[in-house]
Design goal:
Elements: H1 2-14, H2 19-32, E1 34-38, H3 49-60, E2 66-72, E3 83-89, E4 93-99, H4 102-113, E5 119-127, E6 134-141
Antiparallel strand pairs: 1-6, 2-3, 3-4, 5-6
Helix pairs in contact: 1-2, 1-4
Amino acid sequence: MHSKVMVIANRLTGQGIGRRAAMVKAWVLVKLARVETNVAGRHRAPAGAQGNRQLALEHLTRYERVTVRLVREKDNAFDHNAVAVVAGVEGKGEYQVGYLPRPLAALVAPLMDAGKAVNALYEGVKGGYDFLYYGLRVEVRI
């Protein structure tokens, strides 16, 4: 557990957060062990992908057994800590539906880079009523 805390704290200090604040944030994340969050980027996608992500999320509402996995994107041009969220249904395929929110990705990315197990579980699709965007809720386990 100590090494997880240090990996996260070192990454946070490298991003300009003070050592004390970085240690506190790292301990909270490691002690918490799981975080429920909404997936980001599901409606701010590049042209064309936005509609596809919304369609993919709408399709997920039809299934009970949905898998979610996290994919580290070190070469992402917008965020060097980017962690993509890929949802799928067995026999139907997978689709990237968004990203972990930046603050959470900044904490999770160093762990993934260090080879630590970080998993995600499907919590459900939300929204989609008449004019609202669909969203995805996942649980991230460290």
